[in-house]
Amino acid sequence: MTDLAILGWYSVIALCLVMYVVLDGYDLGLGILTLGDTDERRRRENVDLVATAWDGNESWIILLGVSLWAGLPGAYAVALPALYLPVIVMLLAVIARGVAVEAAAHGTVVPRSWGLVFGLGSLVAAVTQGLIMGGLLSGVRVEDGEFAGGTWDFLTPFSLLTAAATVALYVTAAAAVLQVKDGYVARPRVARAAATLTVALVAACAVVFFAWEDTWPRPGGAQLVVATVLALVGAAAMVLLMLRCWADRGPQPVVLLTIAEVAGMTGVLVYLHPVVVPPELTLPEVAAPPSSIGFLLVGVGLNIPLVLFYNWYAHHVFRGKYVPRTASELPEGVSPASEAVRPRGSEVR
Amino acid sequence: MPDPTVLDLSRWQFAVTIAFHMTFPAITVGLSIFLAVVYALHLRTRKPVYLQIFRFWKRIFALGFALGVVSGTVITFEFGLNWGKFAHATGPIIGPIIGMEVVTAFFLEAGFIGIMLYGDGRVSERVMMVSTSLVALGTILSTTWIISANSWMQTPSGYRVVDGQFVPTSWWEAIFSPSFGWRFPHMLLGVLITAAWLVAGIGAYYLRHGRATEFGRRTLSLSLGVVTLLLPAQLWIGDQVAARYVIPDQPAKFQALEGNWDSDNTGYLLLVVPDQQAERNRVEVGVPRLGSWIAKDLSGETATPGLKETPPQLRPDMLTTFYGFRAMFYASMVMFAAAFVGVVLRLRGRLYSSPRYHRFLVWLTPIGIVAIIGGWVTAEAGRQPWVVFGEMRTADGVSDIAPGSVVATFAAFTLTYLTLLVVWVVYVVRSVRRGPESDWPDGELGSDGDDPRRDAEVTA
What we know:
The complex is a heterodimer of chains A (349) and B (460).
Chain A: H1 2-35, H2 40-51, H3 54-71, H4 73-82, H5 84-105, H6 112-137, E1 142-143, E2 146-147, H7 157-181, H8 188-211, H9 221-243, H10 252-272, E3 275-277, E4 281-282, H11 283-286, H12 290-300, H13 304-317, E5 321-322, H14 336-339, E6 341-342
Antiparallel strand pairs in A: 1-2, 3-4, 5-6
Helix pairs in contact in A: 1-2, 1-3, 1-6, 1-7, 1-10, 1-12, 2-5, 3-4, 5-6, 6-7, 7-8, 7-10, 8-9, 9-10
Chain B: H1 4-45, H2 48-81, H3 84-118, H4 125-154, E1 159-162, E2 165-168, H5 171-175, H6 180-209, H7 213-249, H8 251-258, E3 268-275, E4 280-287, H9 290-294, H10 318-347, H11 355-364, H12 367-381, E5 386-388, E6 392-393, H13 403-434, H14 452-459
Antiparallel strand pairs in B: 1-2, 3-4, 5-6
């Protein structure tokens, strides 16, 4: 029973990770794309699209951190000191871009400086998230349940690869979201780049997949089968994405990429199980006592559907295509981001 | 035993990051409630000024909230980064409490703040009202859980220790630990009062400069009303916090905040320069007998216990605890006096026409933040050397990390946060200088459908 409860909580943590990568991935990607946009209107569009959603999207990383701490304190206390530098740099980047978005969203123009902070902050956040993932998968030195490695242990050739793959993933996700959202600003460059990006992403993921040297006992039986199936589903979605779907301006890229992300990450987690901090720390070793896990499942777990609803509702309210506005077109007292996207053909009340 | 420099640096890093973080919830919790009230007034009265107030303040709220979110993310991770052993030991109790904060409060705020900030004109007014209220509810719930977690560190209960880990035995007792019942209302009133001073200060600025006078009058009247009602309650509750939990549960904190070493002083100290090693104050300025009067003995004979009653290794630092408390206490006295003058002026009908009082209020704009940070310094520095009072020392909670990394990241955080503070202040000052949108003719406010430009674009 306890094992099942721990596994239940582990899936909540996995959900947080997947939700974070899917949701904040695209808005970090939009930030990275801003770096290549010399056009003020495009900066404006990216900021507007991010402004209405980033608070909610970013909340998942906070829940991820807290869920790890509360449910797997043994892993949290080891992984964070091991990944000290990339985590802190990520936090600093996240701060910078969040403030840049909010500071720029209420004006009518996005100053170059804020655009740059938004873009660089997003890029650094993506790179460090990749380093964190890669550093963790490369293995962490642990003695007596405590981190026993060095400050720079996270920096391995493998973690550099995962960092590159993460940037490629987020930018592709942003391109996919733009495909749905962008109604008015011509984006031939992004559309062309999207195809190239997908190829780069597929290549990066393939290299990461084959470069990953796992030094711990491999799972066998059903677990290996599930992980393999998930990996194949993810790969299939990526190939489909690469082959088509960028041509028409529909939601297919978002759907396919999301399938790839969910299947890929779930596959890795299934493959790792029960290892939480490679190569050695396992789920039962790092889990909180049963009284905490029980409380978490009931108290926190039961709130997850509500949380998903808030996320869906916030995105639902701001659905539709992007409509660029000039300052004079905006009603007084309304931020550009409020007006940025409109469902097609919707009547304004 | 980890490197002592890592301990000191980690403590400083945490102190700087949490003090910066705390500034923003201190403002935004109260502001979110203010915004909900103002939006409700707009729906009820249909007076343009309320929508004007709502739109002006929500922009200041937005950046404050963003700063609170991003700096709060830092705090969550810092528990694991610099305080890995603390995180491991307390994770089973504090982790779930913070987890509840995230799922019940934080997502609620983050989910609906987008609608509240950018929903104007695209969702119905009822949805706007609901979203604004949900954001306010979220901030209150957030305060509840955070104070619960911190109160558990002050007065731990409902647990037993197994292999160096705190294992919950009763969630009820852990969540509602003995100090929670007094500290929660203390904090909630604190943030409401802080936001009210901010609103009052900016309202007074407009009255003083003769701009947006209707806006200035309404906000000044509302915020001073709130302050006048809440301050007396806050003084009473603050007194209860000391009497019901600090004095009985954490005597060393009380001894340090009084600034006494020996237990024979019946006065009240205003200034000290303590020498922690020599167990005495190098400089000491006080009012004789006042300490006894505060302790409700008018004969002037009651002495305040001194820090020597606590063994040296269990003493908090007197300097920070003493001045943290003084910052909170003196700030609240100034606020009380200012609120009193406000009541007098209101009764004489001169509240809106006294430039000197308005200038005074402009100066008082950030005073609530000073009081709140002072209060937290007292609570946290006074708890030392414990991180979980009576159970786990701060020194045993710190991670084994390289001092170099902590120095580098501490410098990076300090620099970033100073920049952000400047950005925030400049943003607020600019917004205030630019002023709320000019008064619109009736009818254009609230009903966006009349705007032909929008229809043209949507059908385009």
